[in-house]
# Entry
Amino acid sequence: MTPTAGIQDPVFLEKLRRIFKSTSLLALGMVGVLAIYLCFAEIIRAQKRPFLGYFSAALSGESRMTLRYAIYGAAVAIVLLLRLVNGRQLRTIESLPPEGALPRLQRTGILALVLAEIPAILGLALFLAAGYNRDFYVLLFVSLFLFFMYFPRLKNWEDILQKNRSSCRF
# Structure
C-alpha cells in the first residue's frame, strides 16, 4: 500500500476532517480568549485610571525594567521554542503512516496553539504587575501573529500526511 492510499480512503478522509474541525474550533476559541484578555485589561484600565499595576509599590524603577526585559526575553524564547518544537514534530509525523500520523498531527497543532498564546499571557501578567499596557498590546499582537502562522489549515495537514512538501509548513 502506498503512503497516499490511506489518505484517499473515505473513512480516513472523514476522520481527518472531523479531527481538523475540532482542532480548528479549539483554535478559534483560543483566539477568542485573546479578545477576553484585551477586554479584561481595558476594563481594569478604565476603572483604575491611572493604572500603574498591582505591584507597582513593590517594584522600583530598576526592578520594573528587569521584569519587563525578563517578560520580553521569555516571549522571544517561546517563539523560538515554538519554531523548534513544531518543526521537529512535523519531521517525526512525516515518517509515520497516515493513520498513526493523524493524532500526532492534532497534538502538534494544539501544542503550537498553546505556545502561541503564552506571549499574550506574559503581556497580561506584565500589565497586571507593572501597568505596562503598551507592552501588553505588543505581546498580544505577537500571539495573534503566531496564531495566524500556526492556525490549522486542512491543505497543510493533507500535504503533511501525503508527504508532499509543496505548501509552507511553518
